[in-house]
Structure formats: structure tokens, C-alpha cells
Amino acid sequence: MSSQKRLETASNVLELRLRVRLWRNKGDRIALVPTMGALHEGHLALVKAAKVKAERVVVSIFVNPAQFAPHEDFSRYPRDLAKDRAMLELQGVTDLIYAPEGRDMYAQGFATRVSVDGPARGLETDFRPHFFSGVATVVAKLFLQCAPDFAFFGEKDYQQLLVVKRLARDLDIPLEVIGVPTIREADGLALSSRNAYLQPEQRKIAACLNRALRAAGDAARAGTPIPQAESEATAALLNAGFDRVDYIAIRDAETLAPLHSLDRPARVLAAARTGAVRLIDNMAL
Q1: Which of 23, 50, 163, 250 is the 20 to 30 Å CA partner of 155?
Q2: Is residue 122 part of a domain?
Q3: Same domain, 137 and 78
Q4: What is the number of other CB atoms lying within 10 angstroms of the CB of residue 248?
Q5: What is the SS3 assignment for 199?
Q6: What is the pLDDT of residue 2?
Q7: How far is residue 147's CA from residue 34's CA, in Å, rounded to a whole number?
Q8: Residue 185, exposed/middle/buried by CB under 10 A (0-12, 13-18, 19+)?
Q9: To 10 degrees, what angle do helices 131-146 and 158-170 make?
Q10: Do 155 and 245 belong to one domain?
Q11: Residue 268 burial by CB count (10 A; 0-12/13-18/19+): exposed, middle or buried?
């Protein structure tokens, strides 16, 4: 019986670049899977998709403080590198974990942030105005540090996926950003690291988010005016027990611009809160 190989970890950019250089010298293609840890089956789907495209897969694990507002859950965001490592080792398709410290990613005196617009406008930005600048800054750093051929992101964070694609295009970063379909529980709840915060009663409420998305999409396809479909789905979530609905919105799938009718590929996106837990989800129409 062969023993399970322990994954190596690069803890700073110099170690990462040394390993990447060795792979490049062999002609290997490299895929990056950026994560904040607390890995689950959704992350593993990204890793498996990455291995199909590239000979080498790097999984970054870094809880990025730049995308959290002071009142948000940075300090309590789940962190368990040993558990994450064991999960990746069990899959056997990851070549390296990149787990930098905060002081390495944001050295003393760090003073640069990436400003984003386009698909970053509205939706999440209306409620978390700091968020996409923080995401874009850390993702740009990861792309420059790892210099991958491919980067994989989940479609659950669909607006983020579009923002990252635009970032790579606008800054001429030579890689392909690939979205991977959302992995769901049996009742439709999208897998998320924050699902660990849900209490049993909240978990029941959370399952209604996916159903509301489907209902909004079905109504719009049946001819219900889009504002009405969005409003009815919002009411359904509040009736199901959600404490707040930030948005349910039917948008252009490529630009996230508002739609007057379903005359092009569309996406319905939602964000809602049960207690202190904020959940997001989306689906194609």
C-alpha cells in the first residue's frame, strides 16, 4: 500500500516562485485555485477542474483582511490549515499549498489598492462597498506572485467571478479565468464556508434561498415583469424567515446590467441574511 504524500507548503512569495520556476522549466502548465480556507466540496470541485487543465495545481489559502469591513467576520472566519491540508492530500491532485502570512501579503506600509468598476457596480457593492477592491487587490497579487496559466473560481460568487475576469482582461494579465458550477447540498443550498455558522433553524431557512431564485426565474420566463418577479421572490424569503433581503436581481449574465426583459442570457442573483449569517447565491436563466 502506497503512503499518502504530504503536501508541501510555500509560506512566502519567494518559495512560491521558486517552485513555479522549476515547473516552468519542465514545460508544465500551472493552475491556481485561490481560497480563504475552510475548504469544502465546492473548493474540491475547483481543484479537480484545475487538474484537468494543468499539470500543476496550486491552492492558495489566505483569509484576506482587505475584503472585510471592520464590523464583519474577519476575526472569526473559520481557519484550520491542518484540516484543509488533509482534505487536499486525500484528493491527491494538488501540488502545492500557498499559505502566506498577512504580513507577507500586506507588508508594513502597504499603500496600494485596485479600484474596480464595470461588473463590480451595484449588487454586492451596494451593501459591501469595500469588498471588490479588497478582492481585486489580493487576486492581482496572487496572479502576479504565482503567474498561473489558469485560475479557477466558483460560480456561487458570480459577481466576483465577473470582476476577476474583467481584472485580468483590463490589466493584461496573461491567464484564463475559469468559472466552475456551484456545488449544492441535496436541498439546493449552495456550499459555503459560512454555512458552518448556521444554527439548525437557520439552516432550514437557508434552503429557501435557492427555491426563491428558481421561483423568480420561472416567473420572469413565464412573462411576469422582472421587477415584480424580484419583488415576489423577496417577499417569499422574508415570509420564510430571513431577517433581511439585500437583493434579488435578474441581470444580464455578461455585464450584470439591469434587464427589462429576458431577451439575452441572464442570471438571477440574491443575498439575504438569517441572524448574523449572510448568504449569497445565483443561477443561470
Answers
A1: 23
A2: yes
A3: yes
A4: 26
A5: coil
A6: 42
A7: 13
A8: middle
A9: 50
A10: no
A11: buried
Q: What is the extent of the structural domain holding 72?
A: 9-180
Closest among 90, 103, 104, 16 to 56, alpha carbons compared: 16
Residues carrying an active site annotation: 43
Contacts of 36 (CB under 8 A, 6+ apart): 61, 62, 63, 64, 77, 193
Residue 6 pLDDT = 79
The model scores a pTM over 0.85: yes
Q: How far apart are CA 163 and CA 158, in angstroms?
A: 9
Ranges of H-type helices in the chain: 13-25, 41-53, 81-91, 102-105, 124-127, 131-146, 158-170, 200-206, 208-221, 226-240
* Cα–Cα distance for residue pair 208/246, rounded to 1 Å: 15
User: Which residues of the chain carry a pLDDT beneath 70?
Assistant: 1-5
2 in any annotated domain? no
With contact defined as beta carbons under 8 Å apart, do 191 and 184 qualify? yes
Position 187 in a domain: no
Q: What angle do CA 172, 177, 183 make, to 5 degrees?
A: 160
- Is residue 64 domain-resident? yes
Q: Decide: helix, strand or coil at residue 175.
A: coil
Coil/strand/helix, residue 152: strand
**Burial readout 1-40 (b: 16 or more C-beta within 10 A, e: otherwise):** eeeeeebeebeebeebeebbeebeeeeeebbbbbbbbbbb
Query: Quick one: which of 104, 102, 170 has its CA closest to 136?
Result: 170
Residue 87, CA distances (Å) to 39, 41, 57, 256 in order? 8, 9, 15, 35
CATH number, position 242:
3.30.1300.10
pLDDT score for 63: 96
